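pipeline/complex-builder :: batch 7 item 3
reading input block
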Amino acid sequence: MEEGHQLRQVRIEKLEQLRQLGVEPYPYAFESDSRTSELIGKFEDFQEPDKGPRHRIAGRIRSFRGKGKVAFAHIDDGYGLLQLYVRKEEVGEDPYKMVKLLDLGDFIGVEGHMFRTRTGEITLHVKSIVLLAKSLRPLPVVKEKVVDGEKVVFDEVHDKELRYRQRYVDLVVNPEVKQVFRTRAAVIDRIRRFLNDREYLEVETPVLQPIYGGAAARPFTTHHNALDRKLYLRISNELYLKRLIVGGLNRVYEFSKDFRNEGIDRTHNPEFTMLEFYQAYADYHEMMDLVEDMLVDAAAAAAPGGNLVFGWRGHDIDLAKPWPRRSMLELIGERAGEEISLPLDKPRLAALCKKHGIEVEPGMSAGKLLDELFGELVEPHLINPTFVTDYPLETSPLAKRHRSKPGLTERFELIIGGAEIANAFSELNDPLDQRGRFEAQMQLRDEGDEEAQVLDDDYLRAMEYGLPPTGGVGIGIDRLVMLLTGMETIKDVILFPQLRGPLKKDV
RNA sequence: GCGCCGUUAGCUCAAUUGGCAGAGCAAGUGACUCUUAAUCACUAGGUUCGGGGUUCGAUUCCCUGACGGCGCACCA
């Protein structure tokens, strides 16, 4: 809608008419004392509703039905809709002229008492009304009615592009979107308390990093002018948090916005939120216990009442403890129908891959082949929470060698609904082993693997001062919220997901 | 990056074999003092995503680009 569009022009003209009536279209504040949802909820408590107390409430006009000298409207205060009943006789001549100049989308403040209309709807009987902000652009008009107790919505806004690009519109017209983001905040709050209660310290580490690390991914790069230096947006905060363990902050965590220069799909957004937490003197077994407790606790923020069954990706997922802990080799062996034994036999794994239609490239290590088999044969079938343990050494350069299984590490991933929700290790704390692992990664990098990790000398120096045995976990918060809210795409749990290109037209 | 599908009024959507681009809601004017997808009458509203082509004539067919969705690839 360009500057001169008629719908917008009409509203601009109304601004002038309002000012001529002495109405300021953009006043400074309004003191409200109620919420729509509470007023409706408490209505039944009133002895004599029609003579009940006065309430003040502010919000956006979402529907309007003028009937001559009386008007009905619904106000939306962000928590729900409440019907208003306005009579010219009661609010006065001039205010009613103002009412006639109102549009859907305008913010108003009202004062009045509660009653029930002849048709049964709980309603605010307005005694006074003020304009709080005039809206110039028409919001999409969505109507609903209740049929047999079921809400039927008309002209619902489905257009994904409009919803993501103009999230402010989406939030107004699709009220369930607000609930997703309230749940997201509640889940994060709950996890933060869970960790604080266990004497974890919340910390902040650099987003701009001279060397990126802690994960296998391609980074975004940027440049610092004053330092004339290339910097990377973090792909992970793992190495910084472990430096803090070296320093004696024995339990640390950070909700970290990470950035990875990768494709975008239902489970990947270039910037996403990761929770990482590290605990000195713990191993991965202890971290599994902690993750299990943490996520069951977090689920309560999304589904009060102790319900632990969540519908997601076409499955009913039961989060009830305990969650099975299965080794990766065992799971692959079951699905492949043949036992995978140690030490890993690369030609045999390659044959197995080919048998299951997985492309084998010459440079692939035995561990990489195992990862491929797991992703193809096992992961999609793990619906209820499962801790998959003991990943190959080659693909886990920051994880400690397994205490009894050569060629594997003490690492687990938590898989729910076929998606990776958490990744964790007994952290590698042998600095010489770590140096060797970094060197192996650099070798892969030289061979063209752009996602191989980069050797971080300062991190090695820190570890040489001494890193205690440590358990560490990373949890993909966006995916966790998807699970707990039943959303099928990561775009639905990120307020402003990354989209290509600019707004295609000014609508 | 590849394939398939889509983009028409502010919103939700139609448009026959290629033949004057329509409806509902929203908007404007008028009527209406308990309406509720309020109702009634009238009015206005379009670069059919952009560019090119075929044709007497393109929303429709062809090419190309943009954006979105889905799938694949990539991806802890």
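note: The mean pLDDT of chain A is 92.
queue -> next item
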